[in-house]
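OP here, attaching both records as promised.
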Amino acid sequence: MSDDLVPLRCPLCAGTLAAASSGERTLTCPTGHRYDAAKQGYFNLLTGRGTSFREDTAAMVQARASFLAAGHYEPLADALAQEALTGFPDRVPRLLDAGAGTGYYLDAVASALAGSRGQRPPALALDISRYAMRRAARLPRTRALVWDLWRPLPVADAGVDLLLNVFAPRNGKEFARVIAPGGLALVATPLPGHLAEATVPLGLLGIAAGKDESVAAAVGPEFEAVHTREIRSSLELSTDDAVRLATMGPAGHHHDDASTRSRLQTHPMPARVTAAFRLQVFRRR
């Protein structure tokens, strides 16, 4: 990994944050702030400051990784990749995944760009979970940083061209700062009816209506809406898949595998479950 990656900004002083000359496992800024990589390769920029938000646990991240690896949400990953290829037809964009989780969607987009352009884009993964960033740090040409998306992002002004935001907090003011003019933000949210058949069996929360308007308001006036598309697919889930689905999301903070399996005995899952997503494309003015 070289420092031709997404340019970073020190979260303490806003100075340039870059790999130290001694190697890639230390980030420093001109005023001397220093961040060392964990043994798994990610950087925790929240060290010493912490956050009031709960990170996804190791069990939640493992469940998500296994569920996504089975291809259940591959149509959404494909749609994100298609939008990236269409939006950047003749160059390789600098990529930020704000709320990257395991890096599944980032990898899908980066791999598609690499296959089409012959070069994998420089990428930055941000997520509040250490366990998620351990996985994202394995991706080529990618830095993985533990960070709270509600704070000013540790990214240089106009430092990225393409931002992914998949089921994650939307800090519109910071998105506008870090995306270069003309760049794109791809924002994915669940549609009403997403996993509706699994709501009772798995004790999931329903999806509120009006999400498209709330997303546009959250990203703010510095962006213009390009278009919106809906992605729907039918999932056949095994019992193990269903348990992973319950564990990998916010409900994973409250349920364990045993309680989920017990609930499924009294509330059986239907044969098929609907996955329904809204993908909104915004351009930085």
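Record two, same layout:
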Amino acid sequence: MESLDGPAELARLEAQVRLVRPLELDFLARAGLRPHHHLLDVGCGPGFFAAWAAQDLLPLGKVTGVDADPALLEIASAHAATVGARVTFRAGTAARIPLPDASVDFAYARFLFQHLDAPAEALAEMRRVTRPGGTIALVDTDDGGLVVYPAPSGLPALLRASRQAQAARGGDREVGRKLKALLHDAGLESPAARVYTFSSEDVGGAAFVAVTLGFKAQVLGPPWIEPAEVAAVVRELRVLHESPGFFGQALGYGAWARVPDAG
């Protein structure tokens, strides 16, 4: 299986940031990100989003990226070198963020909560490092919103294996619908949510398949599904997405809330 810092996965992550950029711009504006803010990118991975945010969204602010993977942090630091000191990266996890209390304006986790076994613990830590009146924002996916037509015969088995593998690792492939409730349960104020459609009509069939199903194809295997079954789905998708009638849709779920004022 492809490693999560291997070339194919890095290419998929870079494409994801680039292709969903118009949707993410709208979401961040609605959530209240401002040009002077200190943005925390939790689970920053190879830093593609952090570098873009520092360069284009925060001309008067800065970005701190946090990730647990040293290899990804090394890639992130190299990728963001042209941005300068306004973007930095530190080793840490969502449950152990290496920042002082109330030190950021906007804490953001993108496509991270699907992997977490203790989302409430992560939100408590994000709240700790966000100033009173600041914002915590989450973006993630949900397999319930994924539609492909025509679909490979093995796609239901692939999606089922994806949910099982994620659950076995402590994650949740249906977390998107739960983001607003998670923010409410964390004691944050005025939680709000937004749903965004990402489709093959927007980016083309090949790009849609790569971004929405590429991760599954790279990491899935026994005991959840046999490699031959994964390969068969990938082969069929390569043919189907070139069909004039192909359509694919995925839903991106965003939610944000405000940290209560002190006192």
